[in-house]
Please model this.
Amino acid sequence: MATSKRTYPNDYFAWYNDDARLAIVARVLSSDSTTTVDDIFDTYIDDSINSGNKILRIHYHSKYTEVSSLTHNLTTNSGLDSGLHPALIDYVKSRLLEDAGDLQRASYFKGKYDKNIKQYPHRKTGVRQLAVPKL
Amino acid sequence: MTVKDVVGQVEHLFGRQPEQYMYRLINDGLLDIASKAQHFSAVAKTDLVSYQRWYDLDDSAVIDVFRVEILDTNNRYVMIPKLADSHKLLKEDSDHPDNVGTKT
Model:
């Protein structure tokens, strides 16, 4: 029975999560249980499954790798897109001024930072408007 | 751009700053950008374990999960849906075999 669930995973499996964990559940089939169930999910059971199977693949929004040296490259080592480097500099300037007590200048750089983050990505691809020739 | 370039630009305006302090500010910035922009995605593979419902997420890397796939019997990863209705769960969250409703 378990094998058939993995033949069409999208028909039988589902996921949900809390803050720190991901839950994988499988649809309960009438052949799994003596109780009458309909469209109900529970913990997956497959006694034949081996360890090291790497069956689950999870896509997630990730944090960037932290920096710890001056030679650390923000793009290749941390994964920060080059389009966001100016925003990072504005953030650091804002924090420096904030810590120094200059809140007016800090809010200027914070505003620049927020604007840059909000506008990113800068629409690199895709059709944006019709190219109507001028007659 | 390297960390040295960032520090150089900042120090040009604000003068010399402690190195560790600059690392802390840059790391705070990276965390803030990651949570707001959410353009940086990654993939992790792990084992599917029988009788196990919960899989720990790496707090140092994961902001939020947006897609989950399972390897089917033809060795292709297939997307599975997110369960939106918690009323469809047969039992409360438990990994213990005795509490799993489908135990045979």
In short: The first helix of chain A runs from residue 2 to 7. Chain A touches chain B through 75 residues (CB under 8 Å). Strands of chain A lie at 13-17, 21-27, 41-43, 56-62.
